[in-house]
Amino acid sequence: MPDLLRLEDLSIAFDGVTVVDRLSLSVGRGETLALVGESGSGKSVSALGTMGLLPGNAAVTGERRLGDTDLTRLRRRDWQGLRGGRVGFIFQEPMTSLNPLHTVGKQIGETLRLHQGLSGRAARARVVELLEQVRLPRTLELADAWPHQLSGGQRQRVMIAMAIANSPALLIADEPTTALDVTVQQEILALLADLRDRHGMGMLFITHDLNLVRRHADRVCVLYQGREQETGPVERVFASPRSPYTRTLLDAEPEGRPASTGTGATLLHAEGLGVSFQRPKKLLMKRPPAFEAVRPLSLRLGQGETLGIVGESGSGKTTLAQALLRLVASHGEIHFDDTRLDTLSGGALRRMRQRAQIVFQDPYGSLSPRLSVADIVSEGLRFHHPDLEEREVRRRVAATLHEVGLPDDCADRYPHEFSGGQRQRIAVARAIILEPALLVLDEPTSALDRTVQKQLVSLLRGLQDRRGISYLFISHDLAVVRAMAHRLMVLKDGEVVEEGDCLEVLARPRSDYTRALVNAAGL
Q1: Is the separation of the CB atoms in 341 and 335 below 8 Å?
Q2: Which domain range does residue 394 map to?
Q3: Is residue 259 part of a domain?
Q4: Residues with Cβ < 8 Å from 382, sequence gap 6 or more?
Q5: Are strands 331-336 and 266-277 parallel, antiparallel or unpaired?
Q6: Is residue 501 within 8 Å of 486, Cβ to Cβ?
Q7: Do both 275 and 174 map to the same domain?
Q8: How high does pLDDT run on average in the chain?
Q9: Position 256 in a domain
Q10: Which pLDDT band, with edges at 50, 70 and 90, does 334 fall under?
């Protein structure tokens, strides 16, 4: 098939430091090429450099062609017409890519206006059609929603709708499914494959999920430290990899089971816990009924136990966790150890928080870029223990950073200087320095490649063995959940559809929905 995108000896350097070294690849019309490798291998920077999206201190050399267009000779005006038109982008972090000051519909409509001249009712109809194509519910309502009102997976689907709005010839998808559950992953990738086949679109698919590569890519290019390790058809590379690094990636599936560290005592218990959000009232219209994000449910978590919570995007997983920590308003009873949480407020609630910590999905967004690692990790310690001497604070910070496997010289560095996996370790250190009894882990491995996922799973299991911490583990990756969780709870539309022993649920799911999750994950 004819080449749509061709790179020859692409090299990228920042201030003289080479990060991509003589990369050559091609993407044909109607073909999907997967670009894989661990965090920091140069996958995303290669795509950004190809399309002229790197900052001024980047030096990009080599041949870059899109069809008959020589990308090295484009002027700024030409780039503006090409990006978003002939080339669509799906970025990894939708919350930083979407404008928080504009509604979803307005942002999709902007690209339609710029590249197709659509406006008014025609643009509105096309926006709703695109939202339906990416399988979003309540499309008329979501078109008027703001990015912060959507779940992570819903925001990612909005980004996909924007990327395909102008039927691009080339789609660059940078980790397009990291925030999506496995069933929606399959739907989205099937949608992208259908668009590719119908329009002859080429796709550069950047991902760390080798299961998705196996199912949805035609060829794969493996990168390590900016250098190509091997390229070829997916079946050949996966069946008989020639590079030792490729073999390492293929062997990086999280393995084993968590130890049975539970004491049998209940740490966290909820009864009739539910969360409702009031919908906005439009002018001269009756206020619509409240949206039930979590319908009343019961939950129990033992000391030293891990409860996995899975379900599709928007099923209420994160909202449930936030309600248990009193971060969103809820109704029902919440018992933490011997304390009734739902009755606490003020100072009593703040004192409780040191015993229940949270690690968020996006470590880059949850770590202040203006604080050093030492300041980030010690912030909670200084707040809850103001009488500690500075020497003791530094000692505890150093010991905690060592426990999570970070280098000794990292305390005075800043978050932007670390890889995604290292930033997630910093977030874990910030949480465990307070010696919590409960740690909520909200998609802690979703943005990490398999090798780093395996390391983080090993770290978390080791911490649980040594400290007896209870985990509430939220994830859409069932392979990681299987390696982490003792028990499993499956949510759909804010309701519990199934729960029980993790291995039992995954091996013999009772509900159709759980069965669909397991089948989509390939377990």
Answers
A1: yes
A2: 266-521
A3: no
A4: 388, 393
A5: antiparallel
A6: yes
A7: no
A8: 88
A9: no
A10: very high
Q: Residue 88: CA atoms inside 13 Å, Cβ hemisphere, count?
A: 27
For the record, the structure tokens of 479 come out as 């392979």
Q: Which residue has the tokens 């660059």?
A: 172
Strand 69-70 and strand 58-66: pairing?
antiparallel
**Pairing relationship of beta strands 306-311 and 487-492 according to DSSP bridges:** parallel
Please check whether residue 330 lies inside any domain of the structure. Answer: yes
**Residue 201: count of CB within 10 angstroms of its CB:** 23
The string of pLDDT tens digits covering residues 213-231 is 988 899 999 999 899 999 9
CB 306 within 8 A of CB 481: no
Count of domains forming the chain: 2
Does residue 258 lie in a domain region?
Answer: no
User: What is the rounded CA–CA span in Å between residue 127 and residue 105?
Assistant: 6
pTM of the model: 0.73
Euclidean distance between CA atoms 462 and 477, whole angstroms: 20
Are residue 219 and residue 308 in the same domain, yes or no?
Answer: no
Residues 214 and 275 in one domain: no
Task: Count how many residues are written for the chain.
Answer: 523
Structure tokens at 173: 């998808």
Query: Could you count the other beta carbons within 10 Å of the beta carbon of residue 247?
Result: 12
Which one of 201, 216, 250 terminates a domain? 250
Task: State the Cα–Cα distance between residues 4 and 203, nearest whole angstrom.
Answer: 10
For the packed helices 373-384 and 390-403, what is the interaxial angle rounded to 10 degrees? 120
CATH number at residue 272: 3.40.50.300
3-class SS at 42? coil
Give the Cα separation of 49 and 13 in Å (integer).
10
Residue 368 DSSP label: -
Report whether 517 contacts 476 (CB < 8 A). no
In this structure, the answer to whether residues 319 and 193 fall within a common structural domain is no
Average the pLDDT over 506-521 and give the result: 90
Which residue in 226, 221, 247 sits closest to 32, CA to CA?
221
d(CA 348, CA 77): 58
